[in-house]
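Suppose you are handed only these lines of text.
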Amino acid sequence: MLNEKNETKKILTIQDISCYGQCSITVALPIISAFGIETAVLPSAVLSTHTSGFSGYTCRDLTEDLPAIREHWEKERIYFDAIYTGYIGSMKQLDYIKEIIDSRLKPEGLVFVDPAMADNGEFYPAFNQEFADKMGELCKVGDYILPNTTEACYLLHKTWKPNFSKEEMLDIANELSDFTKRYVILKGDTHKENKLGTIVLDKNNPSSTKIVYNDKIDYISHGTGDVFASAFVGSSMIGKSPSKSAEIAGEFTKKAIEETVGDPNHKYGVKFEKVIPKLYDLL
Ligand code: PXL
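From them, the structure of the protein bound to PXL can be written out as follows.
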């Protein structure tokens, strides 16, 4: 699949490899590639599984590999059209990632930050408020940020609750304008019955703020944020608008959940692979 100018885009994604568990790089690489985008990876850590619902997982932190990888790419003059960050292994990495963005992103390149650190009102095991505050600094170099409501509340030091009203969601999105260079893509708006909304706010044009709705499936599973973010990044990089990308990503994620519901042994992730062949129909 080519973008409007008929050229192949090259993107770098920085997040962990959870060897088993359908999240992070093992989700981003196939989904973004399916959009026809060359996808390079920089693993922030290698874990035997992700950290939600598994116990005793191994974790090799790759923080100190990041500067050497950047230096090699500098020598090779490797540049990217976009950098997409997800689950980050350590506070120090947040500084290294900013250096990678400064050094390896093309002048017109885009930064997508998914501050993957929390869900359902709680931090994932490795994170705390200090990390969230530093993640907020990375968000500020993002052209797009893609938090869920829990992450938004930690960024803003607000109290989370399972359901916010439409007005509260719009207020949160507005407050998040301080944490992005341009777009806020706020996931998890539940105010409308049977629908899941995504708020799309452009801080250069706040009056254009939209809520994009997809049908809601009452099913909790892991990894849906990564599936959504990857499809959003892929869609944006082939030239779709932020609201169209939110619609495509929402639909792609909904279909992945539909493929997973009813399999009691598959709570650790969603079967997004089954939706990849249907991607063209969603565009
Ligand atoms: O999907 C977010 C995620 C990514 N990577 C790891 C995780 C999680 C969420 O728990 O544990 C390692």
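What can we learn from it? The mean pLDDT is 95. The chain has nine helices and eleven strands.
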